Amino acid sequence: MKHEDLLHKYNVPVPRYTSYPTVPFWKENIDTSQWIKAFKEQFSNTNGEQGLSLYVHLPFCESLCTYCGCNKKITTNHKVETEYINALLTEWNMYKKLMGALPLVRELHFGGGTPTFFSPANLDKLLEGILGSSIIHPTADFSFEGHPNNTSREHLQVLFDRGFRRVSFGVQDNDPVVQKTINRIQPVEHVKKVTEIAREIGYKSVNYDLIYGLPFQTIESIRKTIGECIALKPDRFAYYSYAHVPWTSRGQRLFDENDLPSAEQKMAFYQEGVKIFGANQYHPIGMDHFVVTTDDLFYSWKEGSLHRNFMGYTTQHTSLQLGLGVSAISDTGHAFAQNNKSLHEYYSMISGKELPVNKGYFLNKQDEAFRKYILDISCNGKTQFKEEDNEALQFYTFPELRKLELDGLVRLNSDSVEVTGLGKNFIRNICRAFDLHLLKKATAGDKKSYSRAI
Question: What average pLDDT does range 214-228 have in this prediction?
Fold first, then answer.
């Protein structure tokens, strides 16, 4: 089949597989007591040696980036910082009461929103409240998302002093026309400045997020943006496909869909990016990520220990992730729980001394097995089948994998499957072959649940 035909065939709505089962299959108003039981059991199993991963959602932004699909609250009123931090620390203390021991923190990530919306002093207050009564794992990995326009030297220094060694800057695109359309005016000089300051302070990993598929992007503008960014020598690139989901992200309705590139153009943008990254010694790992060979993520990928959670690709393979803040997601390996997405409801539950958990899912043994297959494919590009899963594999997965094999996307063996070079362009479609929930569902192509693969 021609490459162009493959693009059309596989450009269908597919999950991004940050979880399995995916969020549309989770249940509303889960049993909080069951969640508490699952959390306590997993904390007891993992805290002594492995430790936990901690995600803190900081939702505020001063202006709306129209491409963004994250849970955010737009405001220029910085008085909101104090109330939110107090709520976060109250939630943290609720969980600490369930722990029964000092938590061993192995991974900590500030996401958003815009974490650097918060003042350095308030971020320090938050970290004192969390880390002041915790044990920090010897191999801890602390990271945050920074906006190049408002990340100050003081932000970087305060977080460095608390153990942060990695920062991800949301660059997205350097073209002025694209920036104006997505309402993110951000001169490349700002990116250069914060990168240099981070390196002066001692950050060991500076990462850039780029997006392809935005309005008015061209192959020339993509080349220019990537070239300008490579000149600043970041350690990692995340090169994401723009996910157009205006039914859930209303800001995406503010630009004309006719200005979006076609699927063929998006794939050309992706392939051009891969070519440029490769020519500049950035190695592809997993989905959408390119790293220098001195980066810890590259070593994890090479030794087969790369892991992926709601915070992205990581070298830290913990079995317990705790999410704090509005819309944050927690994961015990056997259960998922998501906090209320409404800031008002989040505050209301915190004030009532209730865990602000709303949506979630409790996995059965089959869910856990197929979650592992999907993680293997998305992290290492291959997986080994287990005999006890044979019935479900034979009925649902193998027919899908055989179709993918005919198109040259995978190599299927009796006991394993491996993604081909061509298949690396279609990882999400390959993961779908292990998505029993989606395959069992009559309306598997539900266009209102997922963005398109390309």
Answer: 97
pLDDT, tens digit, 9 for 90 and up, residues 149-205: 999 999 999 999 999 999 999 999 999 999 999 999 999 999 999 999 999 999 999
Tokens, residue 152: 């100050």
Is the Cβ–Cβ distance between 343 and 59 less than 8 Å?
yes
* Whether 349 contacts 32, CB under 8 Å: no
* Residue 65 to residue 223: CA distance in whole angstroms: 22
The predicted-structure confidence for 315-372, as pLDDT tens digits, reads as follows: 888 899 999 999 999 999 999 999 999 999 999 999 999 999 999 999 999 999 999 9
Specify whether the CB–CB gap between 355 and 349 falls below 8 A: yes
3-state secondary structure of 273: helix
| Strand arrangement of the beta sheet that strand 410-412 belongs to | 382-384, 416-419, 410-412
Beta strands in 233-281 (DSSP E): 236-241
10 Å Cβ neighbour count for 407? 17
Amino acid at site 192: K
H or E segment and range at residue 383 = strand 382-384
Angle between helices 3-10 and 263-279 (to 10 degrees): 110
Q: Where are the beta strands (DSSP E) in 25-127?
A: 52-58, 60-61, 73-74, 104-112
Domains and CATH numbers, the chain: 1-21+365-454 (1.10.10.920), 27-324 (3.80.30.20)
For the whole model, what pTM was predicted?
A: 0.94
Burial class (CB in 10 A: 0-12, 13-18, 19+), 388: exposed
CA dihedral 41, 43, 48, 49 (to 10 degrees): 110
